[in-house]
Design brief:
439 residues; alpha/beta; FAD/NAD(P)-binding domain; five-stranded parallel β-sheet; 11 helices; binds flavin-adenine dinucleotide
């Protein structure tokens, strides 16, 4: 059972939530810090890569930092909201967070002399600023062991139904095994719930993240931005094996080579014409039939989320957000390794700031919560409908029919009763409403 009261409540046990918890407890070891997640094992996209590895993009000197900032700005094409302060912090603080990860014992690739191996990354093929760690379960274990030693409380098996900031921060948590929702009072709440990719029918995101974080944060009063800018990787159906559109026999030869230089679809990039030509052949189920087999653009990770300041605070006092559910540091096209970097840089800042807030507040009486409406049949049918529609109309910046689908989502929202379906529809609405709209 979740405790009724903690000092800092962290929603999500992916790389962002774990980092936030660690930095919070390092800053104030006496605080009661709880990390809430869906599963007791590694969960979320952070631990989902089938290659069992993740890259983190880190600038080690001024020249790398300047280059990184220039590349991120150029890749944005002036499209998405990009906060220069957050971008500078990300460039500046990556080295310290990399040192933290090494200190925790994460298994980074090294050469025979023991030096870290710098790799190139998606959207930045000429750079050598990405460092890869292998063995994701072991990486999770490194965080878990340190957090256990610091007395962090892990609360698996619950779903946040509602979150509040203001004078009385807290969350209402519903045990997945059944039973009534449990209110938890806190002095500060950090949302680290990952992105919405699980809401799509075709997705490569990790398990244990139901995908409604945008709806939850917006309901709590956070400003949202960039929600239409998801990354999509092409994968085989079935199998979800990676498919490179540059290898497609029908790809424009003039663009195919450039398209092989990055995995995700690129917003506003010339070579995205290859993806759009493929998507023009999409069938009702969101897949494309090719000689090579059936493939689909699979939602992978989002560049959108809650708008935060330098200390990962949303505009709601006492409610912070970090990792994939926060935005402003990437722009439209995220350089490879940039999200793991963001989980560590802004996870650290969220945890540090939450510790300060918790020490300066009594947390009030705790909010009053409304009991959630649960309608399983409505939810199952509604989520299936939403997943199909998102994979057909929202992918790659929007397909013909997305306006009508947005309208249908809004109509459904008016009558939907089930709490999780409502938050999911709201998240879908943010995605559809935030599409770049070039069609
Ligand atoms: C296959 C794959 C490969 C990737 N490779 C890279 C890479 O190499 N480099 C890079 O920078 N990025 C990469 N990314 C993106 C990056 O890994 C993720 O965006 C990032 O790890 C997200 O971290 P997070 O902590 O914000 O969210 P997540 O890791 O998704 O964690 C979310 C947490 O919240 C919990 N949660 C969510 N919703 C609920 C709920 N409703 N109730 C209870 N608990 C909930 C989950 O259980 C989980 O613990 C990759 C993504 C994928 C899918």
């Amino acid at each position: 059972m979740p405790p009724s009261r903690v000092d800092v409540l962290i929603l999500g046990g992916g790389l962002a939530g774990l980092r936030a918890a660690l930095s919070c407890l390092s800053a104030a070891p006496k605080l009661r810090v709880a990390v809430v997640s869906l599963a007791s094992v590694p969960s979320g996209s952070s631990f989902a890569n089938r290659n069992d590895a993740l890259g983190v993009h880190v600038c080690l000197n001024d020249s790398e930092r300047e280059q990184y900032v220039r590349e991120v700005q150029a890749l944005n094409r002036g499209q998405a909201v990009l906060d220069a302060r957050l971008l500078a912090i990300q460039a500046e603080e990556g080295a310290a967070r990399l040192a933290d990860l090494i200190g925790l014992g994460l298994p980074f690739e090294r050469d025979e002399r023991g030096a870290l191996i710098p790799r190139s990354s998606c959207f930045s093929p000429d750079s050598r600023r990405a460092y890869v760690f292998k063995g994701l379960e072991r990486a999770w274990g490194c965080f878990k062991a340190r957090l256990d030693a610091l007395g962090c409380l892990f609360v698996p098996g619950v779903l946040p139904v509602s979150v509040r900031g203001g004078r009385e921060p807290g969350a209402l948590l519903l045990p997945v095994g059944g039973g009534a929702a449990v209110p938890v009072r806190a002095r500060a709440v950090v949302a680290a719930l990952g992105g919405p990719a699980r809401l799509f029918r075709h997705t490569m995101s990790g398990p244990g993240a139901p995908g409604y974080s945008h709806g939850l944060l917006a309901h709590a009063g956070a400003d949202m931005a960039n929600c239409g800018y998801l990354q999509y990787m092409w994968g085989t159906v079935p199998g979800k094996r990676f498919f490179q559109p540059g290898d497609w026999s029908g790809a424009d030869p003039a663009l195919a080579g450039a398209r092989r230089g990055h995995c995700p679809f690129g917003y506003g990039l010339e070579d995205s014409a290859v993806d759009l030509a493929l998507a023009a052949m999409m069938e009702q189920d969101g897949t494309v039939r090719l000689e090579e087999g059936r493939v689909a653009p699979m939602a992978h990770a989002s560049n959108g989320g809650a708008v935060i300041d330098e200390w990962a605070q949303t505009r709601v006092q006492g409610l912070l957000a970090c990792g994939e559910c926060a935005t402003g540091m990437h722009g439209a096209n995220r350089i490879g390794g940039g999200m793991v970097l963001a989980t560590q840089v802004f996870g650290h800042r969220a945890g540090t700031r939450a510790a300060e807030l918790a020490q300066g507040s009594d947390g009030g009486r705790g909010p009053d919560w409304e009991a959630p409406v649960i309608d399983r049949a409505e939810r199952i049918a509604g989520l299936r409908w939403l997943a199909k529609g998102l994979s057909r109309f929202a992918v790659l910046g929007g397909r013909p029919g997305h306006q009508e689908f947005l309208w249908d989502v809004r109509v459904r929202l008016e009558t939907a009763r089930d709490w999780r379906l409502r938050l999911s529809l709201r998240t879908g609405e943010f995605i559809l409403d935030g599409l770049p709209g070039w069609l």
